[in-house]
Amino acid sequence: MRVLETGNHLIALAAEASRVEVVPAYPITPQTQIIEKVAELIDEGRMNAEYIPVESEHSACAALVSASLTGARAFSATSAHGLAYMHEMLHYAAGIRVPVVMANVNRALGPGWNIWCDHQDSISQRDTGWIQVYVAGHQEAVDTLIQGFRITEDHSVLLPLMVNLDAFVLSHTYMDAEVPSREDVDRYLPPYKPLWKLDPRLPVTHGSVVYPADFSETRESMQLGHKNAREVIREAAREFEDVFGRRHGDLVEGYLLDDAEYLVMAMGSLSAESRVAIDRLRESGVKAGLLRVRFFRPFPTEELRTLCRDRASIMVIDRDVSYGMEGALFSEVKAALYGHADVPVRNLIVGIGGRDVTYELIADMAQKAWNGEIGDVTWGDSHTTESHRVTREMLCEFDRLFESEKEVR
Amino acid sequence: MVSFKDLPEEELFLAGSTACQGCPSSLALRIAFKALGSNTILIVVASCTSVLQGSYPLSAINLPLMNVAFATGGASASGVAAGVKALVKRGELAEEPTVLVWAGDGGTYDIGIQSLSGAAERETDFIYVCYNNEMYSNTGTQRSGATPLGAWTTTTPGGKVQHRKDIAQIMIAHRIPYVATASLAYPLDFYQKMQKAKGIRGTKYIEMLAPCPPGWKFPSAQMIEVSRLAVQSGMWLLYENEDGETRFTGGTKRIIEGKVKKKPVKDYLEMQGRFRQVLASPEGQEAEDLLEEQVSDSIRRLHGWVPEYI
């Protein structure tokens, strides 16, 4: 079925096509349209699922985990503060090994309140054990969500999977996309077959006390799940292409890579903007290419080592920052390449809190980064605004207040 | 009336648990499982029961059991209830099993109240049992919202200066179909309440007073005696509330009806080391009076008035 829909509604339709059975969810901008659509589909009898209107995101993730452990296919969606509020339960979902899929609409974390796009929310959940994929378009969001269930439900993986889509840029814009029917998805995605579950016919204790003598193995098996996921991700993409004729998959996606001497690396919708920048640079004779990281976890270490070898220079775009260090993707890229590719890598931090990023800016900063004209880490679009002047005046007011209080004492 | 002979012989709480001697939770689990039977899914909220069930790879609980995070009792029940409903729709399960949440007072009064309230408002079909030992016993005796005034804990070294809150009344305010309190000194009363809860659709809340020998500082052989005196002194009132109607049961019923005389709160306090310090202090009499007043206030709220013979 070809539809003209928002990225959010497409996520809901893809969940419906995947025969999701339980959806616990809590509203947060800019994710709300997803769960509104799910509620509407259930109400109209077009989706055969249980909607759980939980009272918080922490509870959303708790219900997601326990519903999945009964053997039902479970899905949820959140964003920013909601994802942060889930943090404990994100660890729980991965630790108890439930194959759930959740859409996260990437949004900035307050304060100050900011509902617009950056990747700080999901980057901050890097070490929870979740598989993280970042999509760059509407059709890719649909296809990735469906593939998500194939990947996470594979018995060699069994790790929760987060589909990240950029707030507003993808979540609220309308694009036409192909949404397969349930019957079509059935040809690709078999019914969920748990490896273990909560079942009175076979009473088993889940999540009990594990002493140091056994605990490390449980965590090593999660690392193994991520290792296995790499091949499962590739296979899920291949089979998806066989059934649907569309290819959205793999851990990375390249653009004009073959002869490229200079690379831009990015995640999410900024990689779509970067493609335009690459085109412009090519027009001016620069051998530029784009390497988009789709999966942040498991990290495409092998792909990067192969694809970054023998390049002249790389600029990594981050829509996030690991405070006290640098952009998170930048760190990961350097760690992956260390000892494997002798290439300078520089970091551009842009698009924080929804700041507009143009292809002109990317092209300009990329050339500076590749030529070594900017530092290792550069905030590409920070500039002083009128509001900063107001802040300075307010600070002076506070200063006068403290001085006058001193006199009173 | 149910007698002990009517209780099923099947033990779903097996030997080999790692509970302390005289642990009220393990005895309550045994009785609850007999009332509910094996077609039950158990959710254990982080508490002593997470530990006393045994550790990986062994378990003393012969039910499908999920140990969940501290704040998630209600939400986890909503997830399981929705999951099994989906499985019944799909034809994989013949009927929905009973969903039972087992949580301590910390996981109920404090960190878990939001999740429990949410599940009750959503009318999730499950039984929530709070075994209330009036403190964080598992972490070594810290104050909770259920700790009574005057009680020593490691975080109220001078005795708690506030009253406990009345969460059973908070649950009644949710207008759920069934709320009850229970005591291990009245095991058949507890058994019947569990059985009744099983037969009702919607959210059921049952709270069991769980005197903790090491936490409350009394010999483990006296756990039932302390439980009984809690009821006899009015410090723990036994009742059930069905569709808004409150009915006293067990020892509390006899006190309200004037068939037995309520014992002084002091008798109950003196059995426990946790009140020793406050009773010996200059504020001892005041604390005792405040607790007696709270007993009267609780009876008044439940019954409408306090009979003069109490």
Please give a handful of descriptors for the protein shown.
heterodimer; A: 409 residues; alpha/beta; Rossmann fold; 2 domains; 5-stranded mixed sheet; 43% helix; B: alpha/beta; globular
Please outline the helices and strands.
The complex is a heterodimer of chains A (409) and B (310).
Chain A: E1 2-6, H1 7-17, E2 22-25, H2 32-43, E3 50-53, H3 57-69, E4 75-78, H4 80-85, H5 87-95, E5 101-106, H6 120-123, E6 131-134, H7 138-153, E7 161-166, E8 174-178, H8 182-186, E9 205-206, H9 212-244, E10 252-255, E11 262-266, H10 270-283, E12 288-293, E13 295-297, H11 301-308, E14 313-318, H12 328-337, E15 345-349, H13 359-370, E16 377-379, H14 386-408
Parallel strand pairs in A: 2-3, 4-5, 5-7, 6-7, 11-12, 11-14, 14-15, 15-16
Antiparallel strand pairs in A: 1-8, 6-13, 10-12
Helix pairs in contact in A: 1-2, 1-7, 3-5, 7-9, 10-13
Chain B: H1 24-36, E1 40-45, H2 48-52, E2 65-68, H3 73-90, E3 98-104, H4 106-110, H5 113-121, E4 126-132, H6 167-172, E5 178-183, H7 187-198, E6 203-209, H8 213-216, H9 223-232, E7 239-242, E8 245-248, H10 250-256, H11 265-270, H12 276-280, H13 284-303
Parallel strand pairs in B: 1-2, 1-3, 3-4, 4-6, 5-6
Antiparallel strand pairs in B: 5-7, 7-8
Strand content of chain A: 15-25%
**Residue windows where pLDDT falls under 50 for at least 5 positions of chain A:** none
| Name of the CATH homologous superfamily of chain B | Thiamin diphosphate (ThDP)-binding fold, Pyr/PP domains
Largest sheet of chain B: 8 strands, mixed
The total count of strands of chain A amounts to: 16
CATH architecture of chain B: 3-Layer(aba) Sandwich
Structural class of chain B: alpha/beta
CATH topology of the largest domain in chain A: Rossmann fold
